[in-house]
């Protein structure tokens, strides 16, 4: 079976399907690629080399990238720490704060350390695995449920976050169902209790307005390849005032305020900055266009097929995400039935699992409903023609599969 699947994949590489998986990754915008190119072979200096022009030049463009990133989220450029991506950022934020709190209790050891970590059951795998590791180290971890729309109960959060809480980690936008959490209210709850608030915003930046000051966000994780930037680069926002203290995960030369050692990849930093600059200019119009395309796709599928249901809140969600349950259809069978479309059943980081999506189960879907769910991600380069083709191919494929049953 594995060999046949491998042959099928190789055979299909010559046929380029319509890409509808923008939550998994985005193509790098050509304008981002253009901005990056000179820093691979012309201005190739090490941004940490302070003794000559090549290093100064690299340092200057890296600092400009910090400014572009900070500008989109209402931060100070000095609060932007470059990482390899959101997974590293999430690990650094969660483990870094927890370990600092444990090793530096308030009052010089006279007051008990904050030992509680609060998160939700629908976080990205790297967040859930990070808190699981802390739990094995002796931290108290509380994983809060969400309602059937995918939203966190803020009254329950208020009850849970106390003076024992070191950190609350809640993702801004869920990577499977596209639901937007109430970040401002969560930030207020955390600030009132003296707990740090971390948000995995990989799926949010460039899609919804974010303001770390207004939302009382202390740490925010960012990924380049979710915002039409390059893979292998991300950032962590770390608040300076009031100062957030965390321990580094890696030892080394102490670059990035001593929090993330290692030589910065100048071209990737430039690309991430350019992606943020483009998002700042185009986010509003892009969101309107994607909302129209999403409504068109869902409306036409609902009109032509019975049993089509949106998973997650229908209003409080990003416009480019549609997570749909198709009654009586296996999503895996459907994806195989439409090779002309690049779709997914859920998170690319969990695609090797055979179990139904833990996110959809947390929303109350049973196994059959979860297995019939399809994630459709629209983005910057999705066209009207793509939507028409997607509707046509999906309606035909569902018809064939239902006829077999």
Give structural notes.
This protein has 405 residues and is an alpha/beta fold. Helices cover 41% and strands 13% of the residues. It folds into two domains: 2-28 and 282-404, Aspartate Aminotransferase, domain 1, CATH 3.90.1150.10; 30-278, Type I PLP-dependent aspartate aminotransferase-like (Major domain) (Aspartate Aminotransferase, domain 2, 3-Layer(aba) Sandwich), CATH 3.40.640. It has a seven-stranded mixed beta sheet, sandwiched between helices.
Classified in CATH, the superfamily of the largest domain is Type I PLP-dependent aspartate aminotransferase-like (Major domain)
Sheet having the most strands = 7 strands, mixed
Major β-sheet strand ordering: 2-8-7-6-5-3-4
CATH top level of the largest domain is Alpha Beta
Sheet/helix structural class? alpha/beta
Order of helices and strands: HEHHHEHEHEHEHEEEHEEHEHHEH
Distance between the termini: 23 Å
Give the proportion of residues in helices: 40-55%
Number of contiguous helices: 13
**Overall 3D form:** globular
Domain count: 2
Task: Classify the fold: give the CATH topology of the largest domain.
Answer: Aspartate Aminotransferase, domain 2
What layout of secondary structure does this protein have?
Blueprint: H1 2-12, E1 18-19, H2 30-36, H3 38-41, H4 53-73, E2 80-83, H5 86-103, E3 116-120, H6 125-136, E4 140-144, H7 154-160, E5 165-169, H8 183-193, E6 196-200, E7 219-223, E8 234-238, H9 266-304, E9 308-310, E10 321-326, H10 331-337, E11 341-342, H11 358-362, H12 367-371, E12 373-377, H13 384-404
Parallel strand pairs: 1-11, 3-4, 3-5, 5-6, 6-7
Antiparallel strand pairs: 2-8, 7-8, 9-10, 10-12
Helix pairs in contact: 2-9, 4-9, 5-6, 9-13
